[in-house]
């Protein structure tokens, strides 16, 4: 059984991520986490080296992926492909559950090296 704890929470200027199943918490292949993003927040453009599956449990988001913008509402699932630029915007506060292979890294335009996702490790 895995329970949320203060050390499993990462807050950025745009959202709060709560690690659920991750390698540091017992998973060997997958990482799952919860994203809470407040209304009006927009994350940076980035790409992820692994496919991600986002299931919205509350609110809605707008995702621009590969030049196309879609709105995703609570109860729907979004599959984001690997290595494709994307940006997430919260037209209203949302909560999502995200799943990805545990070895994914993020690339941000203008940054030389990829970043690990601390909430996915």
From TrEMBL:
Alphabetized Pfam families for the sequence: Cupin_2 (PF07883)
Polar residues compositional bias, start-end: 7-34
Chain segments carrying region Disordered: 1-50
Annotated ranges, domain Cupin type-2: 35-97
SUPFAM superfamilies reported in the protein's UniProt record: RmlC-like cupins
Region forming the signal peptide: none
InterPro entries: Cupin_2 (IPR013096), RmlC-like_jellyroll (IPR014710), RmlC_Cupin_sf (IPR011051)
Protein name: Cupin domain-containing protein
């Amino acid at each position: 059984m895995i329970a949320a704890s203060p050390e499993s929470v990462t807050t950025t200027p745009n959202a709060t991520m709560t690690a659920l199943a991750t390698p540091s918490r017992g998973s060997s292949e997958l990482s799952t986490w919860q994203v809470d993003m407040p209304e009006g927040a927009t994350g940076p453009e980035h790409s992820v080296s692994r496919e991600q599956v986002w299931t919205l449990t509350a609110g809605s988001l707008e995702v621009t992926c590969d030049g196309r913008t879609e709105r995703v509402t609570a109860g729907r699932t979004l599959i984001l492909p690997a290595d494709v630029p994307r940006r997430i915007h919260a037209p209203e506060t949302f909560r999502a559950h995200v799943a990805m292979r545990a070895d994914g890294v993020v690339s941000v335009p203008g940054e030389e090296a990829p970043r690990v996702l601390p909430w996915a490790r």
